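Work Package 3 (structural annotation) set out to generate three-dimensional models for the target panel prioritized at the project kickoff. During this period the team completed the workflow that converts sequence records into discrete structure tokens, so that structures can be stored uniformly alongside our sequence database. As a representative example, we reproduce one entry of 418 residues exactly as it appears in the project archive.
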Amino acid sequence: MEKIDLVVIGGGPAGMAAALKAKERGVKSVTILERAGTLGGILEQCIHAGFGLHYFKEELTGPEYAARFAALIENSDIEVKLDTMVLGISWDNTVTAANKEDGILEIKAKAIVLAMGCRERPRGALSIAGTRPTGVMTAGQAQEYINLEGYMVGKTVVILGSGDIGLIMARRMTLEGAKVKMVCELMPYSGGLTRNIVQCLDDFDIPLRFNCTVVEVHGKERLSGVTVQYVDENFTPIAGTEEYIECDTLLLSVGLIPENELSKQAGIELDKVTGGPVVNEIRQTSREGIFACGNVLQVHDLVDYVTEESNIAADGAADFILGRQAVNPEYIEPLCGEGVRYIVPQRVNINSGKDIKLYFRASNVFDNASIVMSVDDKEVYKKRKVKVTPGEMENVTLSADIGKQIKKDSKLTLSIRA
């Protein structure tokens, strides 16, 4: 059995950033376990620009963003095991994995960082009637076929869901010569970034229908069309609003799910809303010595925030390995007030003496709203925003000064008020 200070599971943007930060903090032995044949994760197929604006202060493509971290990994003594599938994590933080070169390997880790990313919700998770022809696939699958394999997936397209991948693929399909007839969104608002709605739909005159969904697919061998229908406030299809749209391709962009099978197997507590682990301000999970970051923790809209969060998790793991944990921690759980869907971290140490960023998403669209932080119903922070949407992650800083005002039985609440 090999003994390592830190094992990072996942070699995407989160895993690479966490490994590099831990090394920078003085952790001696770091190993990355990645199931794919290359580092970079999903960024390898994201050839569009828009990455790195916050972290690098310049606009990069996905592969360019990943390459910067991969180059730093290559020039370090961080061990990387590619084509390696992690099979489980034991009670004493022993990681069991398998690959062609080593066979079954066991690594005893002082700390573990979970950075497995997320996956797309498939058609099987949706209640769409009809046949099962070719031409129905997730937006990410289509992105891989076009950008990595060089295959065009269709000529006339309908996209269900207005998440960022769906919006980006609407533009990508158009640039490749396809006709994108519409994007249908079940909710009354988009799940993607505003900039993507403008740059990927508005700039190409692609219609976006809210409160609309696909209720049936048609075709035998190949998709021949779909029936779309508007829904009411209870998401029930409205009779008489059915419309048949002729198309040969249906792309699904209906949500991302954190890859937490390993977390479940390890007995880590998961958040019912985010689908990721419940963590404290240093991103430590309910299992001591196991930390989480990136899309396995919460689905991010910007990779820059993934990197930022990975640095926090790596700092926490490094302190754990080097024996520099917080003394006499006292935890409280921030409460979701009006308009707030979830908050990460779910637990914060009020004795940390440090500024703590709270990341959250809105439950609806708010115009000219105020983000308010309250301690025992007393406002301690207020920030005005022109617009807050569920598709864009927000954050506020719980300053060390405010932290001093919080007691163990205090109620810390975050709200969005119109």
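The chain has three domains: 2-119+257-325, 122-254, 335-417.
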